[in-house]
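Residues pack. One example:


***
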Amino acid sequence: MKAAPPSPDSFWVRYGWLLAAVWIIFLIYPINAIVASDMDLTRSLVAYGAIGSFAAIYLVGFYKFSGQMGRTPSAQVYLYFALLVGVALGTIPLIGVNVYSFGPFIISFSAYLMSVRWMWWTSGVTLGSAIAVALVGNLFDELIFLICLLVVLIIANAVNATLIRRSIAADALHQDFTILSEQDRMARDVHDVLGHSLTAVSLKAELAERLLDTDIEKAREELQQIRALTVEALDSIRATVGGLRRTTLEEELRLTREALRDAGLATMVVGNAEKIDVVRSHALSWILRESVTNVLRHAHAASCWITITDEALSIEDDGDSLSGSSEGHGIRGMRERARLAGAELSIGESSHGGTKVAVRWN
């Protein structure tokens, strides 16, 4: 899955350009060079204008593109970089070797807004050319501070840029995980809703078919219930997709007893669903629904026992045992729901001969 872009509310996206603005103080060096020179007023104004243009391009570039940190730079980033380099090189006839005062800005721009390769190329060319000019022109006294500053800045930028990229990558991974978790939740909800509803519809359709020849009114009643079930299922799907589905254990227990009764199963309920708190009630309602759906589909049972306490829920039947069978999506969904609710789910043989599903809080 492709990594998500940095969040619009992240610190770097919102305030990255302000952090970049701090470095503007280092433009004092080319300004001092102009003040200390004997150039005429016209050349001085041109030099000041170049410095101002450089600062504006630098700040606007960070303001526009700080949100692209950690991603492939757009063509506009390279355009702004070219403008920065062009303006800096254009000041060489005016301020000479003091042009390296622009070096920290150009290196920082490439480090934070461009790729890692461009960061190292820009840093290497800037530092290497500064050392070469100092050696050839015997200008170490004039450039030693700027060279040391460039070395420190290259190291600091490399560390900071790496940390920022890792932080953005971690945020993107977290967003991807959140999306996948939500997709998994929706898949479980849709599976549980449709699995239960379609099972009930299938059972009622079979019953209605048998009643057509003996009790037409009863068959019509069953068909009306089938219609009601399909409407309820559609509403549940819509609510699930909207993240609004919140079934209580009490409500699910009522629907479960109706489905078991319609299927001809004797149902014994021990305990009071009203006493279960809301958070546990929601998780238990889904687990009850999936468990009873499995009983109706696979167990071939005659009876079902549901036991509710403050700390546990169990569903047992006297049909075919699921012991040793592979776990499908429904059982995995039940385990996940139990885990998210802080409970433990176990599946084993019932004392009645079938399967027992138990959920317990430690």
Remarks:
- The chain has two domains: 11-177, 247-362.
- The radius of gyration is 36 Å.
